[in-house]
């Protein structure tokens, strides 16, 4: 039933992942709800290969739009946490699937934890940060819209102390999983045929930045990837990717930087008519086999769009 619904749409379903942890790490206090286990990821790929072929987003966009269509799927990773390299990459290789990895280049260079992880860990593991650092982080969270509606310079100032303390006090396996991939790992992914795209420098939500900062986040990210990999950067993922997180001016920025498409977190099938606002389905640790199949069917799309604030 779900498989038939997927295949009858003759569309591309782009799946968005944020991390893949070891099976025995499920439920650990440092593991975000957005992470899936390696076992669950393998089970999901096993289901997907029965539904239709795998493509990268760039391949799908480059295909002849007038050719006979069939339903396909694409795997994408945002940020990218190092645990995805350790645990998703072997599964992808086993199934012969190439994914798209959207890289926040500043985090790759610095090893800095992602802001959402800092905010979550301050609350989940308060003993790891000083009272002053905890208060500074809580202050930014209590602002209207929280840390996701905060300009990047203010966010760095508010979370800097907590991030530095967490980086040194987290258990080694936790930091090794949550930190961004290294440049060596990014290069290895590209060499294996995976698509590499941009995700800003600092995982900055563009909609709350100044025009100059939006320019910098796009240009420096794309330039760093192009220099490291020696090839064009065709794709980009808007951080957060929800309503108000990007705008028409960002499409122009991306086009000027040579980027051909961008993905959001708006639920639904990808639509060629909107290459700079492609839909994706987010997958996390709460997805069971049945709920994952339901997501593939498209029957939840309208509910998800309402929950996300698009409708």
Polypeptide structure, described:
The chain has 311 residues and is an alpha/beta fold. The protein has two domains: 2-111 and 180-308, Glycoside hydrolase/deacetylase (TIM Barrel, Alpha-Beta Barrel); 113-178, no CATH class. 48% of the residues lie in helices and 12% in strands. It has helices at 2-8, 38-51, 57-62, 82-95, 105-110, 115-124, 131-142, 152-169, 172-178, 183-191, 211-229, 248-256, 289-297, 301-308, and strands at residues 12-17, 19-21, 35-37, 72-79, 100-103, 195-198, 235-237, 261-263, 281-282. The strands form three sheets. It has a five-stranded parallel sheet. α12 (248-256) links the parallel β7 (235-237) and β8. It is globular and about 60 Å long. It starts with a helix and ends with a helix. The model has no long low-confidence stretch (mean pLDDT 96).
CATH architecture annotation name of the largest domain: Alpha-Beta Barrel
The helix/strand class is alpha/beta
Give the averaged pLDDT, no decimals: 96
**What's the name of the CATH homologous superfamily of the largest domain?**
Glycoside hydrolase/deacetylase
Number of strands: 9
Distance separating the two termini: 27 Å
Q: Pick out the low-confidence regions.
A: none
Q: Count helical runs.
A: 14
Provide the domain count: 2
Main sheet specs: 5 strands, parallel
CATH topology of the largest domain: TIM Barrel
- The percent range for helix content is 40-55%
Global morphology: globular
**Helix and strand pattern:** HEEEHHEHEHHHHHHEHEHEEHH
Q: How much of the sequence is in beta strands?
A: 5-15%
Radius of gyration: 19 Å
The top-level CATH class of the largest domain is Alpha Beta
């Amino acid at each position: 039933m779900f498989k038939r619904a997927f295949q009858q749409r003759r569309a591309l379903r782009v799946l968005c992942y944020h991390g893949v942890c070891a099976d025995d790490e499920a439920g650990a206090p440092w593991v975000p709800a957005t992470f899936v286990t390696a076992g669950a990821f393998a089970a999901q790929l096993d289901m997907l290969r029965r539904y239709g072929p795998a493509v990268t987003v760039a391949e799908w966009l480059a295909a002849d739009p007038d050719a006979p269509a069939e339903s396909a799927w694409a795997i994408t990773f945002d940020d990218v946490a190092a645990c995805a390299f350790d645990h998703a990459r072997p599964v992808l290789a086993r199934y012969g699937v190439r994914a798209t990895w959207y890289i926040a280049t500043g985090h790759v260079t610095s090893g800095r934890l992602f802001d959402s992880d800092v905010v979550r860990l301050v609350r989940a593991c308060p003993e790891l940060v000083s009272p002053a650092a905890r208060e500074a982080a809580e202050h930014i969270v209590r602002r209207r819209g929280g840390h996701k509606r905060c300009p990047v310079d203010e966010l760095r100032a508010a979370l800097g102390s907590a991030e530095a303390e967490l980086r040194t006090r987290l258990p080694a396996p936790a930091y090794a999983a949550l930190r961004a991939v290294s440049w060596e790992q990014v290069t290895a992914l590209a060499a294996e045929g995976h698509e590499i795209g941009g995700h800003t420098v600092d995982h900055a939500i563009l909609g709350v930045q100044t025009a100059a900062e939006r320019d910098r986040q796009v240009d420096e990210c794309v330039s760093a990837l192009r220099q490291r990999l020696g090839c064009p950067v065709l794709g980009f993922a808007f951080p957060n990717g929800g309503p108000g997180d990007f705008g028409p001016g960002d499409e122009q920025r991306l086009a000027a930087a040579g980027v051909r498409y961008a993905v959001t977190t708006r639920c639904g099938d990808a639509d060629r008519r909107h290459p700079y606002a492609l839909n994706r389905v987010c997958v996390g640790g709460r997805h069971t086999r049945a709920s994952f199949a339901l997501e593939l069917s498209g029957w939840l799309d309208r509910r998800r769009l309402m929950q996300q604030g698009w409708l």
